[in-house]
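Input for the complex:
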Amino acid sequence: MKKEEAILQIKRASKHFGGFYAVNDVSLEVKRGQICGLVGPNGSGKSTLFNTILGLQKPDSGDIIFNGTRINDAAPHQIYNMGMVNAFQIPHIFPSMSVLDNILIAARDYPGENMIESLFLRRKWQEKEQKLIEEAMEILKFVNLDMLGFALTSELSGGQRKLLEIAKGLMAKPTLFLLDEPAAGVNPVLGKKIFQKLQELTQEGMTFLIIEHRLDLLFEFASWIYVLNKGIIVAMGQPHEIVDNPDFYQAYLGEK
Amino acid sequence: MNIAVYILDIIIYIGIFSIVAISLNLEYGFTGLGNFGKVAFFLIGAYTYAILSQAGVPFYLCLICGGIIAAIGGLIISLPALRLREDYLAIVTLTVGEILRLIVKTESSIGGGVWGISVKRAISISFPAGFSAINKTVINAGVQIVLIFGILALCFIVLQLLTRSPYGRIMRALRDNELATESLGKSRAKYKAQVFMLGSAIAGIAGGLFAQYIRFIDPYMFMPIVTFTVWIMSLVGGPANFTGALLGATLVQIFDRGTNILKDYITLPIDPVNLQYILFGVLIILVLFFRPQGLLRESKFTTRPLKLVYEKRRSDTSNKKS
Amino acid sequence: MSLMLICDDLMNVNWIQILLNSAVTGSLYLIGAVGLTVTYGLSGFPNFAHAEFLTLGAFIGFWIAEDIGAPLPVAFIVAFLITGIISVLCYRFIFQPLAKKGASTIHLMVASIALGFIIRYSIGAVWSWTPMYFSIKWPSYIVGSVRIAGQWSLLIVVALVLAFSMHLILIKTRIGKAIRASSSNPDLALASGINVGRIILITWFAGAGLAAVAGIFRAVNTQIWPLTGWDIILPIFAVVVLGGIGNYYGAIAAAFIIGLAENVGVVFLTSIGLSTEYRMAIAFIIIVITLIVKPQGLAMLFRRG
Amino acid sequence: MTRKILLVLLIAVLLLPATIACSETTPTETAPIKIGVNLSLTGDLGAMGVKMLDAARLAVKEINAAGGVLGRQLVLVEESDNTDPAKGLERTKKMIDVDGIQAMVGPMITGTANSSGPYAAENNVVMVTPSATAADLSNQDWKPYLYRICLLDDLQAEVLANVVMEKGYQRLATIVQDNTYGKGLEAALVSSLEVKGWTGEHVVAVHFDSVKKDYLSELQQIKDANPDVVFAVTYADDGIIVFKQALDLGLDSIAWLGCDGNYGSGLFADAQSAEFMAKAFVAGTRTVGGIGDVTAKFNANFEKEYGYAPEVYCDTTYDCVYAIAKAIQAAGAYDGAKIQAAMAGLKWEGASGPISFNAKGDRDSGSFELWKVEKDANGNYANVRVSVVNV
Amino acid sequence: MAGILSTQNVKAGYNDVIIIHDVSLEVACGEIVAILGPNGSGKSTFIKCILGFAKLFDGNVLYDGNIITGITSDKAVSMGISYVPQINNVFPNLTISENLDIGAYHRSNKSEIKNSISEIFDMFPELAVKKKNLAGNLSGGERQMLAIARAIMAQPKVLLLDEPFASLSPKPIAVILSKLTSIKQNGIAIMMVEQNVREALSISDRGYVLVNGSCVMSGNSDSLFAEEFSRQKFLGLEEKKFDRNKFRVHNDS
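Predicted:
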């Protein structure tokens, strides 16, 4: 696998609401197999940038290129099926369904999700589903939720929901996984564990783009950081470079 | 005096309204689409059946066409309406139902307007002379029960299979959290429109069955109260459970007919019709307060493989213990 | 029918009279819709039992004015108060606890339909389904080519006074500002020390009271029976939706637009050879189109509402 | 779980007949005869149906006081179709299957007659309707089991057409209820005028929804079309609103024609409506009892019993009960098929005039009254007879 | 210095998630206290739990020496605690004057309210010019000023501000800073949550630093400001030693 290749490229993307530029001429690259961090104070445009990448909002200008394809105009579900998934900061769970159901629904290329096939090709999807359940169990084990597979999602604690949100993303076997604050709202030990897991997954070729306010964790695991402030990338580099970069502190602690 | 015959009539009504109620359960209970215009699709099915059967089309084609046209109607309404907030969707569908009724009422060229339209029974049997009226009625009712419950069983099985499949999982997911479902790569517009079409088609078929059983339809039969009645059935029985729809339809029918019969034997201080509706209102509010999920809950398992895994796991743990 | 003939038809119409009729219809819808739009905006669900508040008010007014023989203004006031209190009780003991239990919008809506059943058929049980009529005889005036009946002028005056005094209340008084603040930003209203729960109760009280006034007018103009309110609930919903849910000024504009649309609609319907029965459909189509195309309705024009 | 539920369902369905069966008493030769009544006691036409039910009860009371039928008392099984034909059929079935009636008064509305007809005929149950006037009903294959005490639309329309011809009106406007009754009479009048070679023009046709109850603009339409005669088909409740609003708009300068639906003191409940009718109505039609004192006696008894004067279709409802009683008497048994056969030969003087049936079971003789509204010295309004036309 | 508002070992969060762990701090009359920390550190949650907008699991809130734990916001306002949320902090459909009137909702003396309004307009001439404008039409800085002005209308003894400078450009920040100083001079205690550390510390008397829901530093502003070297500490990065050779991926970039 070519690690140097950029899986996601953003070229001069802008997004404004009224006169306010939430994302202003941002260009960045995420390389395959990398954990890439995106940091910045509140209101710096991180979430808007994420939404733009995911197709939830259309950029006003610029290009978003995923795996060599321009995805500016793709719908969120199309982008998902191309292999880019995300985990929300506040877990988007399906409370009336079991944990396993929550994960299974995230699988891509699943034949049973077509009305005709789910009715008339039952054997086909049931076989596939058995395999998917096994995979889902693996993933649950990976995030330590394997004992809760049949619990109702509404009964999970906040931290467990967070893990479930990540597990859902993994079920889709993504090539690029966008995470919005994976460690927020979970205890520090678990937060660290999550990042360790993510690092394990990079060994399998998965790529992560992560927004995280727990800078200690992010800087420990990420290999590249972009610092966003007021819609503009003000600094980038490896964590140790960022730590020494005055622009980074200016973004976070205010103008001098 | 033939109470048995009357019971058969009740059973047939239960059958027809169960079909409408399960279509509402499909839309509302499983997918979260609050369709308050159920009667519109019921009406489309009934009028399609009536008009086609007058033209001599065989009954099964009439039913299928009724379903298809209702599905098309559902698609036309769903395209713009399904992205609406749930209360807007409710108001829009309720209003569309009334517009449709107004049209068939005013345009007498469509289905006789206010004069209504006579409908032939789907299956009419020519009895040899000397058959008693009772026997004829019973046999006719028997044929109707076979027809209606056949279709009910078919719808029930199809929907049961559908909701216990990955497709059903997506439906439930849409109900729980639309945005999350979309972000998991499922086009919510597509799935919602499909479900709405399927639900409308089923309601349309029920409308056809209703028309051929009543043998006469006119616009006064398709008031919003029909939609509300179906909602009562669904909410009482359990919106996310098809057996619940059957239970709800049965309870409402028995309540309706039972109180109507009881009034002949009990002297009430108030008019029985008024009392009936007051009790309906109280019943719904009580259900919403104390049993918002209905009498029957949603099934825990979305698919059969999941259930098998669950059972296997349970037996494994119990084996370990022993 | 050719276009020429249609034009010819339209020339013959007494447009001033049509405008007056529209004002009458619109005034009634306005009084009926104000309460619904405010409670819809604040409580977040369409209260279908609002129709029954109209009916109930009409019956209470009828009872006071005809059976007891009190003058009409007394009937208006008593109907306003009693209906308002009943509405508050309904909110307090049905909708509020349901909302606290986490009932969805649909459940609240179904509950309101159920409450509507209870009130409507209770009225039917108490007063019977036979229509009744106010015995007051109103004078009728001719002004130029226009005829004005006494009850219409009263209705229009009440609607105008209501529109203006509501405006003053909302703009000038403490409670009015609190109502607007609560519907504009409920969380901040709470953080500003406004007891939003109490504000909601007040709007339910006043809204239902106004519905009662509208119900009496409807009854005076036509008849009184248990469906008095239900007969016009969909046009009232059309006003609420077109005006922008929760927007008072939008509702004023929408009431008169829909009054105009219905009455002018009758003229156009007959001139193009359609049944006047489609008059009902005009309001319905306005609902559907507004919700699909621009769910915020006219609210964008009246941001201050 | 599912199996349990199905079991419960089954038990519930089976319990219902058990409860009914327990409360049933087996009919004997001396037990009262149950006659069905299927009217609209709630819904759009509920107000009218309630009064008609009073008339039926009066007839039963009188018959029972006179010794009943075949030595047995009559009992009414009262059902309401809520002005919904589907409900109407359901209620008919209930009366036939649960109460075992062989004859019934009603249905009140044409829709319920259409929906209930086939089932009644299959079970040999006779329906005698006081008010379903639509001509179309005569051609149904189940028609032998429906007898009609009311006179049909086309007969009434002919009388009205004569008035139009005689007075020489040239511009006809119609404002009719948007239902079988209104549209039926309107169509019958127009075709009757055509047959008679009328040269005038039908300038505007307004079909109104009786639920809308605000007809200002519709009436304005009529006014703007400048007709010289307006034909109104309403019942009492909507009629009041139409007429009071017509007065508000000054439509009393035009001649108005009425029909049986807007006959009766119910329309005078509102003073403005009464004033308008007195001013504007040149004539209205309705079926009447010709000579004889049956009508007078009915009117007097009705008013004495209920405290208000009988309104439209009260007399025919009353006659329906008598028709059934007489047919049972003639048949010698309470048996639908026999009653149906006996009914055809009946001929008597009813509250609504001389009654007999043609081959189709429709009333073939009767008198129409032309009426007007007048204010008496005390300031009370009343319908006044202009003339009587026999058809 | 007696604290007008203080917290004792509060634990707070949402639903079942605890975000704030054992935080005790206080603000005294006529003092500005800044609560600093990177985003996600729980600052906003902390301020919200005082007024019951976030869930308080444990600990106490004291106001004027009395325990007011679990108070409802309308009572808190009438007692003298005003709160300015970070977003949606004005009533967009109301004019500036009306927003101020709402601020004085629990006050009854009309002439006093009138005086307060004119005082406010003296303090915020920018708002006085536009007093008939809808708040929804104001710029970000003006909105923030209005939000603060609305809160002052309640005549609070303590003003709680949630990130008053967020997403504002330097110029309005400077204006608001000066306004806060004059508010302080009127004897109102201000407790302000902010991530713009320098701006906040430039006017505050004391500061607390929250990282990951716990208070890691506190002291007077000058001393905090002086700890410029510990800026990593503000971001919770103080003990991390980033291995410069750990990542080779980007060496060439």
